[in-house]
Each structure stands twice: as structure tokens, then as C-alpha cells.
Amino acid sequence: MRTAVYAGSFDPITNGHLWMIGEGSRLFDRLVVAIGENPEKRETFPLETRLTLLREVARPFRNVRVDSFAHRFLIDYAGSIGARYILRGIRNGADYAFESTMRNVNGDLNARITTVFLFPPRELAEVSSSFVRGLVGPRGWKKVVRGYVPEPVFRALLESEGRRR
Description:
- By secondary structure, the protein is of the alpha/beta class.
- The chain has helices spanning 15-27, 47-58, 74-80, 93-109, 129-135, 141-145, 151-164, and strands at residues 3-8, 30-36, 64-69, 85-89, 114-118.
- The protein has a single domain (3-164), classed as Rossmann fold.
- The protein has a five-stranded parallel β-sheet with strand order 3-2-1-4-5, sandwiched between helices.
- It is globular and about 50 Å long.
């Protein structure tokens, strides 16, 4: 069974993430979408909310499982669940530079796990969680953000922004 891990903070989940999940579910027998907890990052949503949202948007993909991990390297987490592949997206040159370095380090740590890179379609190439977070708040943000995130995430952003006011 070909198992891959697609990891990230998913804070919030974007349509780009959803595209990666869909492609990964077609490429691999099993795809584990894992939230890597990073204590250095300021969260928009707590871990439990992100897990719930990920499970909701990944529901159509029967071979996708949602999980989380903390205080571990991704390569070690992948090995611990029997994954032979790490799935990563590359949107631009900066992503390429970072991801190629990580691929090399991961290869040094565990040469049995292969990193697979996907390039999103043009309309998703600039979409990132940090980009979406930066759009929330100013007048008109709802119309703009709605096009970049799945509907359950949009509703969660509306609720979160409503609590802040």
C-alpha cells in the first residue's frame, strides 16, 4: 500500500490545500493529512478546530485520514505511520528553495521516504494560509476570502471574526 503524508499547519485550510488533498488521494492508496503543531506560530484556529475542519473538507476522499503530530520531525512522523512518501506543494521559487532543502535534509534522515512535489494550477498558485489570514478584517474581506477557502472554513472565519469584534 502506497501511503503518503501531506503535512502543514492548515491555519486556515485553503482551496490550495484542498486541491493537494484531492490530488494526493488519487496518487496514493492512503493519504494522511497531518497538522504539524508549531508552538512558534500564532494560531488563527486551535488544533481541535483545524482537525474538525480538515475532517469535514476531506470527507469526500475515502482514502484520506486526518491526524496531528507535535515535537517531531515530519520525516520521523511519516516513518512512524508507515508512510513511504511525503507530499508537498510548490507554488513559486521561494517554495522551491525551501522545499528542496527540506527534501535533502529529510533524505539524510531517512532515505527510504521519498518526497513528491506537486505544482498547483495557476488559479491557486498564490493562495496560502498566511495570505488568507492577512485578508481577513478590512471592509470587503468576506467577498475576497470566500474564493480562497472551502465553505466550512469560510463559516469558521466568519464566526472567529465575529467573536473578535
